[in-house]
Amino acid sequence: MSADANPKSETTQECKEQELCTQCLAGNRPGNTFCRECGAPLTSYAATGPFESLFAEGHVYRKATEQPRRFIVVLGIWLIFGSLALSGVTMILLSRRGGSAVEVILGLGLLAISLFLIAKTTKNYCKRQVPTAEVNS
User: Fold this and answer.
1) Cβ contacts of residue 119 below 8 Å, gap of 6+?
2) Is residue 94 located within the same domain as residue 62?
3) What is the pLDDT of residues 90-121, one digit of tens each?
4) Is the pLDDT of residue 132 over 70?
5) Residue 99 and residue 43: Cα distance in Å, rounded?
6) 31: which DSSP letter?
7) Which of 11, 22, 28, 114 could in theory staple to 81 by disulfide, Cβ–Cβ 3.0 to 4.6 A?
8) Of 66, 85, 102, which residue sits at a domain end?
């Protein structure tokens, strides 16, 4: 009798077991590669696999943009996307000398996306709540 009860309790326990995300502490099914809530990689394969590394890198940019904790992160976003914004302005200016409308549209797109990400990161950094440990230090 007890042999029949053990497999049922093990399957019930397997359904209840969840892997916690290290970033947001959301519960995920065992075997998931990425968190269902925040998209953070849950396994080392998710961060190193060729296709999966694209999603892992996207998570890094999303986290840096949405929750910047240090000024160096904001500075990095400014450097990365500031150079893209400068490239967009350069495309727009060079296309005025005989370029096509496609170049102007691409330049405007680069400029708009870059400025949006810079503004969002800077705003989120300024609105963040400073922990009391940082205030006392």
Assistant:
1) none
2) no
3) 999 988 877 788 889 999 999 999 999 999 98
4) no
5) 47
6) T
7) 114
8) 66
